[in-house]
């Protein structure tokens, strides 16, 4: 089977960049990305590709090249489903906020809705690809909906998890470590797998395209994220010990990272990991383990989250303690709000929780982030429901540049590792601040010695 038309449901951080790269690399395939959110689609179609709704280095250029040629963004979900041979499901699967599994299990309502929509519309056999990270055995549920509510057509369900990291999505998509495709071991399943392999083979070496059964593929994605997050919690646990003992966590990370069995990546101590995946996927893993009665397995992975929450709390407590145990009415400037650099995504960003703690202590928060708007910052805080939207609005202010944001501040907290922060005239910032001037580097990106020589009271993570 040769694929010529692809539909992707969900024009978010996964669907948008992934489909843009498929379209760029496969000009012979028509790729249509659909979303229920009309504003999102309008933004993807903005004539100026710098205004597309997702900021990722290199993405706007790819969209400019492929959009209108073989890449389309549309709200006509049913039409796109009907025309395509392959349908990717890239809708969001947040942690449930209600009912059974609340706070742990993945909320599959958007996935189920997609499956029902596909079942309703499809008049010919289709390949349905799970792109969103999903609990193991979701493919089975999708298949059951498709087979029992559809028009009698045949569906093949593939699991093809996305491993891109935000901020580096384009390079990750262009040069993936591997592509994973899980499918049924029946002849029809194998035919579907092979059709999808052919799509990726347009730019990825065949040796890097791994095929497995569906369950292995689904579980591999959860496992990869759990292992990555575990490394961060492990180094963050050591950071607290370093602070007590006089060791420097950056030196420890470097020393252990040179052991080829450990490797140097994902050993940066920080204020805590954020993003839409790590916490959600681990909670999901914990929930699955518990549902099979595997309590030790569940407890083991839950500790990664417990450590991460502790790291965020520890950071805000340290600010309060260092500022003489009170931050009431003090101005604390956050540099960075996104969960990592080079993205405008703020989901689960440590900044949200640190700000929430400090506002509880009656601090005034000022934020500068190169890519995050005030509306998004306030939405993030309002979502926690700790206090009214009016109170958040009265407490948080934002500035269009760091120099203005830091003026008269009692303390600066670096929450995101944006490169530009390392290029600032820190003397100038120091001169404009309240004295003594404190700096809490939640990402260990600044030069502690230089800042201390200027006069800052510097606090990094793990030293
Ligand atoms: C992650 C996975 O890396 C990716 O493969 C998967 O598809 C989705 O989840 P993402 O969340 O976009 O990607 O970014 P990632 O680079 O993994 O960073 C996650 C969080 O961990 C960020 O808040 C980052 O700042 C933090 N982090 C990362 C650290 O604190 N220390 C590190 O050493 C690495
Ligand atoms: P991710 O990081 O997983 O890509 P996002 O929240 O950025 O998550 O994107 C998911 C997108 O999926 C959103 O834009 C949302 O509007 C869209 N979506 C959710 N359910 C449906 C659906 N049934 N049909 C079309 N789009 C949907």
How many β-strand stretches? Answer: 14
Q: What is the CA–CA distance across the termini?
A: 58 Å
Spatially, the strands of the biggest sheet line up as: 3-2-1-4-5-6
Helix and strand composition category:
alpha/beta
Distinct bound molecules: uridine-5'-diphosphate-xylopyranose, adenosine-5'-diphosphate
Main sheet makeup: 6 strands, parallel
Query: What integer value in Å does the Rg equal?
Result: 23 Å
Shape: globular
Can you give a write-up of this model?
This protein is α/β, with parallel strands linked by helices and 463 residues long. Helix content is 45%, strand content 13%. It has 18 helices and 14 strands. It has helices spanning 15-25, 38-44, 59-66, 77-83, 109-121, 138-149, 169-174, 187-200, 214-245, 249-257, 278-291, 295-322, 350-360, 374-384, 389-395, 402-406, 426-431, 448-454; strands at 5-9, 30-34, 71-74, 86-89, 126-130, 155-159, 179-183, 209-213, 331-335, 364-368, 396-398, 411-414, 438-441, 457-459. The strands form three sheets. It has a six-stranded parallel β-sheet with strand order 3-2-1-4-5-6, with helices on both faces. It has a six-stranded parallel β-sheet with strand order 11-10-9-12-13-14, sandwiched between helices. Strand 7, helix 8 (187-200) and strand 8 form a beta-alpha-beta unit. Helix 1 packs across helix 3 (59-66), helix 9 crosses helix 11 and helix 11 (278-291) runs antiparallel to helix 12 (295-322). The chain is globular, with a radius of gyration of 23 Å. The termini are far apart. The mean pLDDT is 96. Bound molecules: uridine-5'-diphosphate-xylopyranose (UDX) and adenosine-5'-diphosphate. Residues 9-15, 34-37, 40, 77, 90-92, 110, 113-114, 132, 276 line the site of adenosine-5'-diphosphate. It comes from Flavobacterium sp. CFS9. GO terms for molecular function: NAD binding; UDP-glucose 6-dehydrogenase activity. Residues 333-448 form the UDP-glucose/GDP-mannose dehydrogenase C-terminal domain. Its EC number is 1.1.1.22. One of its GO terms (biological process) is glycosaminoglycan biosynthetic process.
